[in-house]
Specification:
The chain is an alpha/beta fold and 284 residues long. The protein is 39% helix and 19% strand. The chain has an eight-stranded parallel beta sheet with strand order 1-12-9-8-7-6-5-2, with helices on one face. A two-stranded antiparallel ribbon has the order 3-4.
């Protein structure tokens, strides 16, 4: 069984718009990142309870917290970062998810041992709070390529992983090579595609991310979650999560249209791979 999740803030700023986009596309899970103009890490616990109540009322479950944890320079205040992490862990528990997406620091290529030390401290905090951290590969952080992710795996116990195919292409990795090395080690997958030569972000299947192969490599048994992170149009909060200029090949009239196009493209791949949509998921 494959189920879909999404960064629904790419469809709309307000939670009501995000819920509408998820329900319109038959997506049962959300990876929460921005609510209104607030990053998930800056919500109060009371605000998190309000978000949970609205999601519950609409039958939407939180798959993961799309947190900015680990998006800091090595010279920044790490103790303060850890305080924020503990707060995010408590938000996760309110939203009834045990997953927090995170990263492995900027300006960190030459600070490997300190990266490992920091990650171990973060895993310890998450473990104490009863949640798990999921490292995502992203351009310019320490763990942005296959070799350094494998180094993290060798040196940091208790950390789990998210695979983003487009982010690997952005740092020059070959999709087949990264899939061969990491696919079986991943906790879940982000679905975002890009044309490697031009760095233009495109719907799944229109780029070089080998999304079809990623899906084919999923075991038939068990349940797997694919989180759509389309990046097909500028959206509220983009500047706060990415330091680059977004390059898109296709143009859409608004964020709802771009979000729906991303969902349609992924569902087309799932259908081509022999899956049928049923009961909030996809089965062969």
């Amino acid at each position: 069984m494959i189920r879909l999740s999404a960064f629904a803030d790419e469809a709309g700023k307000e939670l009501s718009a995000q819920i509408a986009a998820l329900k319109r596309n038959g997506i049962p899970y959300i990876e929460v990142r921005f609510i209104g103009s607030k990053n998930i890490a800056t919500l109060t616990l009371e605000e998190a309870k309000e978000v949970k109540a609205e999601l519950d009322a609409n039958g939407i479950k939180v798959w993961s917290i799309g947190s900015p944890m680990g998006k800091m320079k090595m010279g920044d205040d790490f103790d303060l970062h850890c305080e924020t992490l503990r707060h995010v862990c408590r938000i996760a528990k309110i939203l009834e998810t045990d997953k927090i997406r995170m990263f492995s620091f900027y300006d960190a290529y030459d600070c490997e041992e300190k990266v490992f030390e920091y990650l171990r401290r973060m895993v310890k905090i998450a473990t104490e709070e009863g949640v798990c951290l999921y490292h995502e590969n992203e351009k310019d952080i320490y763990g942005d390529n296959v070799a350094r992710i494998l180094r993290i795996m060798e040196n940091v116990e208790g950390l789990k992983y998210v695979y983003d195919p487009a982010n690997f292409l952005e740092v020059g990795e070959n999709a087949d090579d990264s899939l061969d090395a990491l696919h079986a080690k991943m906790g879940y997958f982000h679905i975002k595609d890009v044309i490697a030569e031009t760095h233009e972000i495109v719907p799944a299947g229109y780029g070089d991310g080998k999304i079809d192969r990623l899906i084919r490599m999923l075991p038939d048994e068990g349940e797997w979650v694919l989180t759509l992170e389309p990046h097909l149009a500028l959206f509220e909060g983009y500047a706060a999560i990415d330091n680059t200029v977004m390059k898109n090949k296709f143009t859409f009239k608004d964020n709802n249209e771009s979000f729906d196009a991303a969902v349609t493209a992924l569902k087309k791949i799932l259908t081509a791979e022999g899956y049928k949509e049923t009961n909030g998921g996809f089965e062969k």
